[in-house]
Design goal:
Length: about 180
């Protein structure tokens, strides 16, 4: 049984907690707004935001981890390994196993897998890659990493060429684009 003194102490603790949280939430909103505005001003930010459902905050997270020097990752395989989207093969004698890469930039992996997971809701190509992985028996996190690896190939090319994503130029995604009605 809770006495009136303990009840009053709990109520005051909750009010104090709320008084601390409200300014923090306001500060978080202010910082998020500043990040969203800043990423729109950067050429690299516009490239990343051109991907389906990348969003400004997620694009900013990816950009913060990639940096602005395309020469940092001379090939897409290096970017995939850094992002933890490339699997690691362990082989010895007759045994061979493929596992998730744990030695990676975890913030970059989180940003890219978040983007990949979101993209499957807006891109039929991404949904197809994800669903194919699930059909092969991959669990959700593994299927999202597979999709992230597929997106890394496209993202790396756009980043190297300094061009926004265009599904009409993405060979694998072209088959999912609606076709214009043929004139009779």
């Amino acid at each position: 049984m809770v006495g009136p003194l303990e009840e009053q102490a709990r109520a005051e603790a909750v009010l104090d907690f709320v008084a601390v949280l409200l300014p923090l939430l306001q500060r978080l909103r202010t910082l998020s707004s500043a990040i969203q505005h800043a990423v729109q001003q950067l050429p690299e930010g516009l490239i990343l935001m051109s991907f389906p459902r990348a969003g400004r905050i997620n694009a900013a997270q990816i950009l913060a981890e990639l940096g602005d020097d395309p020469a940092r990752f001379p090939c897409e395989e290096q970017l995939a390994a850094e992002a933890g989207a490339a699997p690691v093969t362990h082989a010895s004698g007759k045994s061979r196993s493929v596992v998730c890469r744990f030695a990676c930039n975890k913030r970059l992996r989180q940003a890219l897998t978040c983007f990949a997971d979101n993209s499957r809701h807006a891109s039929p190509w991404a949904a197809s890659v994800y669903q194919a992985a699930r059909s092969r028996g991959c669990d959700h996190p593994h299927a999202v990493r597979i999709l992230a690896r597929a997106w890394i190939r496209v993202l790396w090319r756009c980043w190297q060429n300094r061009t926004p994503y265009d599904p009409k130029l993405h060979r694998a995604a072209k088959q999912f684009l609606p076709t214009a009605p043929q004139a009779a």
